[in-house]
Amino acid sequence: MKRKTNHKILATLALVLICSIMLTSFGIGYAGGVRGVGLAGICFFLTFGILVALAQMIPAAILLASLVGTSVSMIRKREIPIQTA
After folding, report:
1. How far is residue 74's CA from residue 82's CA, in Å, rounded to a whole number?
2. CB-based contacts of 57, cutoff 8 Å, min separation 6
3. How many CB atoms are closer than 10 A to CB 47?
4. Is the pTM of this model over 0.85?
5. For the chain, what are the domain ranges?
6. CB-side neighbour CA atoms (13 Å) of 42
7. Which residue, among 62, 63, 60, 67, has the nearest Cα to 76 in the 3D structure?
8. Do residues 74 and 60 make contact, with C-beta atoms less than 8 angstroms apart?
């Protein structure tokens, strides 16, 4: 039961994120003077471009935080994810 509610919450949050990015893209395109079908194209292009950029930046940020955490910490020096000479 708890798993289904977690899926519903995550799906709702994902849709809210996508809708907020889409409405922002729509506003940017409309303010820029794009009208008609071009507005829908710009809206989808910006929305999915932002989603792809987020999909690439989130794992990279996690790896960077892990690298910084292991290189700064004296306890976890042997866990550093890169080879040192």
Report:
1. 16
2. none
3. 19
4. no
5. 2-79
6. 17
7. 67
8. no
Per-residue pLDDT of the chain (85 residues; tens, 9 = 90+): 677 888 999 899 999 998 998 898 888 888 988 888 888 888 888 888 988 998 999 989 988 888 787 777 666 666 666 665 5
Using CB atoms within 10 A of its CB, is residue 39 exposed (0-12), middle (13-18) or buried (19+)?
Answer: middle
Q: With CA atoms as reference, report the closest residue to 59 among 47, 67, 70, 49.
A: 67
- For 5-57, the three-class secondary structure string (H helix, E strand, C coil) is HHHHHHHHHHHHHHHHHHHHHHHHHHHCCCCCHHHHHHHHHHHHHHHHHHHHH
